[in-house]
Design a protein that fits this description.
- The chain has 3 domains: about 5-50 and about 150-215, FAD/NAD(P)-binding domain (3-Layer(bba) Sandwich), CATH 3.50.50.60; about 55-145, D-Amino Acid Oxidase, Chain A, domain 2 (2-Layer Sandwich); about 220-290, no CATH class.
- The strands form 3 sheets. Strands 5, 6, 7, 8, 9 and 10 form a 6-stranded antiparallel sheet that branches. Strands 1-2-3 form a 3-stranded antiparallel sheet.
- The chain contains 8 helices and 12 strands.
- The chain has helices at about 40-45, 105-115, 175-195, 200-215, 220-230, 235-240, 250-265, 275-285, and strands spanning about 5-10, 10-20, 25-30, 30-35, 55-60, 70-75, 85-90, 95-100, 125, 140-145, 155, 160.
- It is an alpha+beta fold.
Length: about 290
């Protein structure tokens, strides 16, 4: 899509004429739901929001990876600056091994070094099946917004969903479930608005109310993220050792005991704002649309 032309009838907003490349354009739409990812096409064309801050994410497909069936997850600043690394097992011994990092220029080198230094050294890496055969081996991935939801997620006849709205888990940058849920909210809101013949921004405002009520407290998690990545490797290892194997059943008393255990073992963590970091970690579980 290359252009959005506003259409009004007797001074009342009626929809958008969408221009673009291809025989199907132009297209008239009462409501446009923007799922264009980090590119944020509607925000760019209509100047709704500034460009978000982004983090780099990339991975390799690797063969014959030893696995117990669980996803391996590493918070290791040596390789992933203000990010993390993973091993995601797939079928037939395959796995995706990758990282996200704020060091966008050094992402490839860091991931290669992580693989070379550890248990995945020497394993065969291949291009993903969707890539054309015969091409040189390289990782795959892209950029992910990390600055939180955009200030404007709806407008006259416009709703932004997923990465286009800035909906990613603030600590670990996962976003598929947030994209699906925001798309469901947008579809519901669009259907209701079209049914009553009012697709104005005022009538679409319920979309913002829906996602704000459902999604986790972004500001708290962003503060906790800053605190978490200020910890040393030693601090993070201690925190990991204090967490139980299964966190989903932790009640208030269980969380309090983890905090007390941490502060007893290393009182200096209080001044590094360990409590906001732990809260951010807790809010980043799947229960709260986390990674």
């Amino acid at each position: 899509m290359t252009e959005l032309k506003r259409q009004e009838i007797d001074g009342v907003f009626d929809g958008w004429i969408c221009e673009g490349k291809g025989d199907q354009f132009p297209i008239f739409a009462k409501v446009v739901i923007d799922a264009s990812g980090v590119a944020g096409v509607c925000s760019k064309l209509l100047k709704l929001n500034p460009r978000p801050e982004v983090i780099a994410g990339m991975q390799y497909e690797v063969l014959e990876v030893p696995s117990d069936g669980y996803l391996d997850f590493y918070i290791w600043p040596k390789y992933a600056e203000k990010g993390y690394l993973w091993m995601i097992p797939k079928s037939d011994g395959r796995a995706n091994i990758g990282l996200v990092t704020e060091n966008k220029k050094g992402a490839v080198k860091a991931l290669d070094q992580f693989i070379e230094d550890g248990e995945f050294k020497g394993l065969e890496m291949i291009n993903p099946p969707w890539r054309k055969e015969g091409l040189k081996l390289r990782g795959f991935g892209g950029t992910i917004p990390i600055s939180g939801p955009h200030e404007v997620t709806h407008f006259d006849g416009i709703m932004l969903v997923g990465d286009a709205a800035g909906f990613t888990s603030p600590l670990f940058e996962g976003g598929s479930h947030l994209a699906l849920k925001s798309a469901a909210f947008a579809a519901q809101t669009a259907a209701e608005a079209i049914a009553v013949g009012d697709v104005s921004a005022a009538n679409l405002a319920i979309y913002a109310n829906r996602w704000k009520t459902e999604f986790p407290p972004y500001e708290k998690i962003l503060k906790g993220k800053t605190a978490l990545y200020s910890l040393s490797d030693s601090d993070m290892s201690l925190m990991g050792n204090c967490f139980p194997e299964e966190m989903s059943s932790m009640g208030i008393s269980g969380k309090a005991m983890v905090g007390i255990r941490l502060l007893v073992r290393r009182p200096s963590l209080y001044f590094k704002k360990i409590i906001p970091a732990m809260l951010a970690f807790g809010y980043s579980r799947a229960k709260y649309y986390g990674w």
